[in-house]
């Protein structure tokens, strides 16, 4: 019974082991993706806006396209929150007793991870393209170049970390549930008793102390041919 699991986790109610949790592949990938999102967000938010020497207003370092910086900042911040949410879900996941709820959580993991992998692919292509067409005269002091390249690089890496999370989540989904350990539906015992057919005691199986059948006594008791017997006092 020790090895029985449902969607990659054992029976609900077990003790939480932080060492085992941190050694799980999906946990490592979530932490790495979380760090990547911090790097992308920090690089663009801190050094992603520059201006020319005679300008006061700052523009996005990626071809002065504000949408590029806004996309990177938004994606980095949202990926950060998503990683934190799924890390919390991973901690709580072994305590979920319902197989259906576990299935929903794993399917959500598959869908969200695939979504973020695709979005980081779009972000990488977008940032790389805008950086490629950036004009040197827009940044004569060459400020923020390393931050821009770091944001592009970690956007590229994030594609594979989120794709790997999707893969491991799909593997957990394929594991399914052990029907011998977990039940998908809970049935109230009182409902089972109420729904069972009523079985009465058969009179033919009972015998009177005198050796006669219970059916014979019953027929005699209700036979109207005996008439009314008057009792004298």
From TrEMBL:
Name by which UniProt lists this protein: Synaptogyrin
Lineage of producing organism: Eukaryota, Metazoa, Chordata, Craniata, Vertebrata
Location of the protein in the cell: Membrane
Family affiliation: Belongs to the synaptogyrin family.
Protein topology in the membrane: Multi-pass membrane protein
Keyword Hydrolase: no
Gene: SYNGR1
This protein's UniProt keywords: Membrane, Transmembrane, Transmembrane helix
Region: Disordered, residue numbers: 189-233
